[in-house]
Specification:
This is DUF397 domain-containing protein. It holds the Pfam family DUF397. This protein is about 20% helix and about 30% strand. By secondary structure, the chain is of the alpha+beta class. It has a 4-stranded antiparallel β-sheet with strand order 1-2-3-4.
Length: about 60
């Protein structure tokens, strides 16, 4: 059985050249390129997604 993400939302931090969308998939998240949705998406489970969000909020990617 194939599960598809639902509730896609464009990031509020997207710009004209860098756009991503996040959707729900199971208890995790799916991420795709807004400008080329046909490329597919990658997924993260709940713990992975929370670790990513925590890293972004603490500026570990700056």
């Amino acid at each position: 059985m194939t599960v598809h993400p639902e509730g896609w939302r464009k990031s509020s931090r997207s710009s004209k050249t860098s756009c991503v969308e996040v959707g729900r998939i199971g208890d995790g998240a799916a991420v795709r390129d807004t400008k080329d949705r046909g490329l597919g998406y990658f997924t993260a489970d709940r713990q992975q997604w929370q670790a990513f969000l925590d890293a972004v909020k603490s500026d570990r990617f700056e």
